[in-house]
Write a structure and sequence with these properties.
The chain has about 80 residues and is mainly beta. The protein has one helix and four strands, in the order βββαβ.
Length: about 80
């Protein structure tokens, strides 16, 4: 089974920044608002140990690249996960 990621043209997506070391109460959750295919808003919904750079202005393709960034080999391994 294949999972598909749909980045909204107009809408909101929530992303959790997690890792393979800390527990979930340490992970931040960020809300990204898209308008016309670009990030027009970024809001921290839950603070955590990882800071997220300002991504306002990125288009959906660049955001998908950030979202799926491969951090294999780094410790701790950091993941960008869509929150459902």
């Amino acid at each position: 089974m294949t999972n598909f990621i749909t980045i909204p043209y107009d809408g909101v997506i929530m992303v959790r920044i997690s890792d393979n070391v800390l527990s979930d109460e340490d992970w931040p959750v960020i809300k990204f608002t898209f308008t016309g295919g670009k990030i027009t808003g970024q809001e921290v919904m839950k603070d955590g140990v990882y800071a997220v750079e300002d991504l306002v202005g990125l288009d959906r393709v660049d955001f998908l690249g950030w979202l799926t960034e491969d951090t294999t080999g780094q410790h701790p391994e950091i993941y960008h996960e869509i929150v459902t």
